[in-house]
Amino acid sequence: MTDSAPEPTAHHKTDIWSLVHTERAALAADLADLTGEQWTTPSLCTGLTVREVLAHIASGASLTPVRWMTGVIRCRFDFDAQVAMRLAEQLGATPAETLAGFRRIVTSTTKPPLPVMAMLGETVVHGEDIRRPLGIRRDYPIGTLTRVADHYRRSDLVVLAKGRIRGLRLVATDGPFTTGSGAPVTGPTLALIMAMTGRSGYWDELEGDGVATLRARGEVT
C-alpha cells in the first residue's frame, strides 16, 4: 500500500457509505436481544457503557457540519463537552429507545466535517468497543478491515493512530494490510486496527518486538 491516497470520487464515497451501512446494520442486529444488565456493561471507551457508545455512534450520524460547528460554539470549543451533549441527545429514556434511534440512522449519510472513511472507521472501532465486552464476535469482511486499517495508518484525526504506530512495521496475518518500518507487530487485521486506535484489550492477539512499544504508548480514554 502507498503512503497517500487520492481524493475519493463520488462513486468511491458511495461504495464506502455502503460499507458503513452494512456495519451499522450488523451491529443493530447483534444488539437486538440484549438484557438490561448487558446494556450497562462498560465498553472499551473509558467511562462509557455499551449503550452510551451506541448513542455516540448515532450522534455522529446525525450531525451536519453546520450543526457540528453550532455545538462546538455552544460548548465554547470544548470538544469533549460537545461529544457528551450530542450523546445525551441520542440516548433516549431506555435502552430500547437508544437502539431504535440507532436503527433510524443505519442508512444515514449525514456526517460532521470528517472524511467518509473516518465514519467507517468509527463504526468498526466503536462496534468493537461494544461487542468485545459483551462477548460478541463479528466475522468482518477482510476487505472492509483492510480499508479501515489503511485509513488509520495515515491519520491522527479524531483518534491518535498514525502517531501511535510511528517507527513500527505492522503486518496482518489474515489479509494484505502492511505498513511502516521498524520493530514488527503482526496479527489479525482487526487486532491491528484496535491497537492502532489505543484499545489495550487486543494487544494479546499481536506478536513481535513492536508490541511492547504499542503498550508503552498507552490506550485511548
TrEMBL record:
GO terms for molecular function: metal ion binding. Pfam families: MDMPI_N. Residues 21-110 form the Mycothiol-dependent maleylpyruvate isomerase metal-binding domain. InterPro entries: DinB/YfiT-like, Maleyloyr_isom, MDMPI_metal-binding. This is Uncharacterized protein (TIGR03083 family). Coiled coil: none annotated. It comes from Streptosporangium sandarakinum.
